[in-house]
Amino acid sequence: MSALGNPSAALPARHIVSPAAAAGLLLPSRTDISLFKMGRQRELEFRTWGGKRKGAGRKRAGAPRMPHVARPKLSRHHPVHVTMRVRPEVGQLRRRRAYQCVQWVLLRMAPREDFRVVQVSIQRTHLHLIVEARDERALSRGVRAFEISAARRLNRACGRRGIVFGDRYHAEQLKTPRQVRNAYAYVLNNWRKHREDRGRRWRIDPYSSAIAFDGWKDHERPFRWPRDYEILPVKVARSWLLTDGWRRHGRIDTRERPGTRASA
Hints:
With 264 residues, the protein is an alpha+beta fold. It has a domain at 72-249: Alpha-Beta Plaits (2-Layer Sandwich), CATH 3.30.70.1290. It contains 5 helices and 6 strands. The strands form 2 sheets. A 4-stranded antiparallel beta sheet has the order 4-5-3-6, with helices on both faces. Strand 4 (115-122) and strand 5 form a beta hairpin. Helix 1 packs antiparallel against helix 2.
């Protein structure tokens, strides 16, 4: 776990891209001319701009996109499992610099009281969060603030510009103790689902907040933190479902391998 490094290490400076004559007009170098064969009259075809054109506009991404429907009402008593996926060109997230970026975002979000990140898991192509939010508006604003801050830092670390999160985030409200228990197991042991534990002697995922979780079945005492391990700073849960309610269905084994996404 020492390979995670210190999150305070300096990140590469943002690549400065000079504007390329942004104020000028881009004009065609010559008029498009199509010639008829066999000596027929030349026909001038003037290129036009504006209006509907075949193939114009933003290209649809390869993966199916989340439907843009109104978010349901949210009670502060119901935690939420949030999943955010990054675009392929961002690269995989289970690396030191990406870990540091997420760590800094969590530190930046820590003062918020209307949106609180309780657990987090970093996978190769996506992030899992378990959060508490005051209501649906606080959830939306909190996730948006998280994505914006994470996008800026990930782009800076990668030396790139552009979109980082390629689709609308997925949010699942957790309304029952069993749902919360399943979500805890799914998020904290998600690395086992993706076979990231192969060839590893770690009992828990170092790219998650699992080391601070107090609900492990086979390790009831807190884990000892390696000296050079910088944790992902998450907030202490407040809602009954996250603190006590889920325990009705049993603690979670560190070797438990999640299946499909948690459900009621």
